[in-house]
Amino acid sequence: MTTPTETDLTTEQRSRYARHLLLPEVGLAGQRRLLRSRVLVIGAGGLGSPVLTYLAAAGVGTIGIVDDDTVDLTNLQRQVVHRTADVGRLKTESAAERLAAINPGVRTVLHSVRLTAETVWDLLEGYDVVVDGTDNFATRYLLGDACALRGLPYVWAALFRFDAALSVFDATTGPCYRCVHPVPPAPGSVPSCAEGGVLGAMAGVVGAAQATEALKLLLGVGRPLVGRLATFDALDGEWRYVTVAKNPGCALCGPRATILSRADVADAWVEACSVDAPAPTAGHVRPVDLALYLSSRPGTVLLDVRSQDEAAIVSIPGSTLLPLPDLLDDPGVVAQDRPVVVVCRSGARSARAADALRAAGHPDVAELAGGVLRWVSDVAPDQPTY
Ligand SMILES: [Zn+2]
Predict the structure, then answer these.
(1) Which of 59, 67, 316, 378 places its Cα 20 to 30 Å from the Cα of 212?
(2) Which PROSITE patterns does UniProt cross-reference here (predicted)?
(3) pLDDT tens digits for 144-175?
């Protein structure tokens, strides 16, 4: 027996959640349960937007938001939790403000940090369900591994162009992420949405499906997508389902598991991280890979070796200018403890600069293939060329 003062919904809540209260599968008990629930959403982006919005509207009492990124104009095509006025703000803050406007009765906990093998354990603390709205393999393996060791259900999805996949991994009752994806794909072999594009509305379809799975798990109703993998082909308008089973050879949840501790998870994460870093081909990074390359190798210096006059016409954001003659004078001026990607107009000067840096002993130098000209044509067609 619980006392009415603790559990009864207020008049406002009875109105707000009236359509839930009418469902026998939810009702008063289910709504109270949602209000006591805690869901951690990784990424306030394309998938995270519908996930966060629907969980807040549904009255999930505590919603944790993990994202260390800021809102960019290119996000707004699909990340509908943010507005144009939010460009430049932390995604966590922008999303939390929108959720508070939708449902002030929901508490948001902002984790404006990068998800790593170090931060993941504190982040998962106290949550009932984890929903992954990110777009990279390292995060999926890390969350899959950490959730399995913690016994938490992991609501996973992936988007690419017009295709999507969705499942719930719960090693206590079914396969884990690793059962289905035993080893990370080869580095650079899987294009990301940043390279291949994605139809924005797809994120709405699949994110809403993730929110539905999370609510089913919290309410304990229906048949969650554990042991089943749903795929959605938007061009055909078709959902398909594949049964996925526990893999007896699974390194995480099989009888001969090798990923057993936090240290094992950290090692496996480092291995998976290399997938998201596009491998430079013979020391060259393609312009379409540049953003991902830089974000997956924090601290990388983008070194522009053109002249000041050229840089004034067009420059890649975040680049540091060091004209080639100055660099050749003293290659030692470039610190050797950070990776370098050298940029020039079309690739000739960057090759000379890279040679000089390598000759000076720099251990990690790559060149931007095709230089600023190819960056403009492939990545930033609105920028001037010369
Ligand atoms: Zn497994």
Answers:
(1) 67
(2) RHODANESE_3
(3) 999 999 999 999 999 988 989 999 999 999 99
